[in-house]
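Try this one yourself first.
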């Protein structure tokens, strides 16, 4: 991310999210970002990060459990907070 992309995103209202746990461990808690994501957040000056549960579809070649652990209400709540912050910025002009 360093270099052009970091410079292009610096100063923008960027937030990152991760979708990974294939269990309910992300439900209701804030899982810190992994090292690579933390580094990227610093490089692009991200305004935040959130980890949400993931999904693994049947037929996927993996020893991991198949299922859907995405919490749509948590994703929507996070998006609503961001939308509210952006609306304030637009309103302030």
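Now uncover the answer:
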């Amino acid at each position: 991310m360093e270099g052009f992309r970091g410079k292009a995103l610096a100063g923008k209202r960027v937030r990152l999210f991760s979708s990974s746990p294939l269990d309910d461990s992300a439900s209701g808690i804030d899982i810190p970002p992994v090292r690579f994501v933390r580094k990227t957040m610093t490089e692009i000056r991200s305004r935040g990060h959130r980890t949400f549960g993931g999904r693994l579809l049947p037929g996927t070649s993996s020893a991991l459990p198949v299922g859907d652990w995405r919490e749509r209400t948590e994703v929507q709540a996070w998006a609503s907070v961001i939308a509210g912050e952006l609306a304030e910025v637009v309103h302030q002009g």
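Discussion: The radius of gyration is 16 Å. The CA atoms of residues 20 and 89 lie 31 Å apart.
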